[in-house]
Design a protein that fits this description.
With 103 residues, the chain is α+β, with helices and mostly antiparallel strands. The chain has helices spanning 5-17, 53-71, 82-87, 89-96, and strands spanning 23-29, 42-48, 75-81, 100-101. The longest helix is centred in the middle third of the chain and has 19 residues, at 53-71. The chain is globular, with a radius of gyration of 13 Å.
């Protein structure tokens, strides 16, 4: 499956704006990935190492404002540590099967 055109633009922006030294994984999911005619928001899960908690929170705060300005939609960026993902691996894997992995 391929990402819809607008989702590709969003994915590129997220990949550039949310740095690799902070986030090891980014997952774009929800109605935005299905090319819904008028999505009301964009949902992303950002996975990071616990030591990067402060940087992840800072980047989320800045990215939300920049994203709203750039795309006119709210960005819902859920922060998950790698430890949290491992603890609930089964349920997270089920949820992420419906998501687009950006990194």
């Amino acid at each position: 499956m391929n990402l819809p055109t607008r989702a590709k633009e969003v994915a590129l922006w997220l990949d550039i704006s949310l740095t690799r030294d902070t986030f090891c994984e980014l997952w774009l999911f929800g109605s935005f990935t299905t090319d819904k005619e008028q999505p009301s928001d964009v949902d992303v899960h950002g996975v990071f190492e616990e030591r990067n908690m402060q940087a992840a929170r800072r980047q989320r705060s800045v990215a939300r404002k920049m994203f709203q300005t750039r795309f006119g939609l709210p960005l819902h960026l859920t922060l998950l540590t790698t430890a949290e993902v491992q603890e609930v691996q089964q349920s997270v894997q089920t949820m992420l099967r419906c998501a687009w992995r950006l990194r």
